[in-house]
Design goal:
This protein is of the alpha/beta class and 243 residues long. Helix content is 35%, strand content 26%. 42% of the residues are buried. The chain binds S-adenosylmethionine.
Length: 243
């Protein structure tokens, strides 16, 4: 399984610093993968809890194992589609996501659904990639489609979040390298794992060799750290606006 925790170590510090979790918070982690961010949230919410949601059964299996191994008792996971899952209404104080919200087929509907799960004025804090051309890992290694970059445009994304009932939307530029491994061989295996298409192995190896430094194999990247607030009901929320 690709080690997103190692790849995103530097990004994670930006997310962690922005979450400001209170001890009693109930935290929802969207697209939690193997759950590093869910467990981080649970450790800060000492009298609260964290729920990680993901579509991938193998990732959740690994998340549950790590959570058990680390002795956390306020952390749960659920296999569900965040776009449509019937979350308990107005339940969570904070929604976080580390690159787990860019794959929605109808982002406005998805964020509206997530918003229903948040209490009024609850916060959303998430990392998403900026555009394809600003991410060297994508331009040099992967011919990814629009998926990972679907929330890259701040104007469009602010419009989506506002339509979904969020206010106070902010974007902070996160400019950190992504890490593919300590050496080109490990990075090659990791890069192949992330490829969704056949690739020229000779060219891939050469690219990884060219990015090998004393600190391992890394590529430049740009992300947005997005924060927003669930609108108090009746204040900017499309759900409660007259139709
Ligand atoms: C790039 S991975 C990030 C995983 C994790 N947040 C991390 O940083 O390690 C994106 C994750 O989002 C999940 N995902 C994508 N669409 C989803 C959806 N509609 N509902 C729930 N999870 C979803 C995928 O299964 C995947 O695990």
């Amino acid at each position: 399984m690709f080690d997103y925790d190692a790849e995103l170590r530097l990004h994670n510090e930006h997310l962690r610093a922005a979450t400001h979790i209170n001890p009693h918070d109930r935290v929802l982690d969207i697209g939690c993968g193997t759950g590093q961010t869910t467990r981080q949230a649970a450790r800060a919410a000492t009298h609260g809890s964290a729920l990680g949601i993901d579509l991938s059964a193998p990732m959740l299996e690994q998340a549950r194992k790590l959570t058990h191994d680390q002795g956390l008792t306020n952390t749960t996971y659920q296999r569900a589609d965040a776009q449509t899952h019937p979350f308990p209404p107005a339940h969570f104080d904070l929604c976080i996501s580390r690159f787990g919200t860019m794959f929605f087929t109808d982002p406005t509907a998805a964020f509206t659904n997530i918003g229903h799960a948040l209490r009024p004025a609850a916060r959303l804090v998430m990392l998403v990639w900026q555009s394809h051309d600003r991410n060297e890992w994508a331009t040099a290694l992967h011919q990814n489609g629009p998926g990972p970059f679907s929330l890259a445009d701040p104007t469009t994304t602010e419009g989506i979040l506002t339509s979904a009932g969020f206010t106070h939307v902010t974007f902070t530029d996160v400019h950190e390298p992504v890490y593919y491994g300590p050496d080109p061989d490990t990075a090659f295996d990791n890069a192949l794992h992330l490829q969704s298409f056949a690739t020229n192995h000779t060219h891939l190896r050469a690219t990884l060799e060219a990015h090998h430094t004393d600190t391992g194999v890394s590529f430049d990247s740009r992300a947005w750290l997005i924060t927003a607030r669930r609108a108090p009901y009746g204040d900017g929320s499309s759900r409660h606006s007259p139709t």
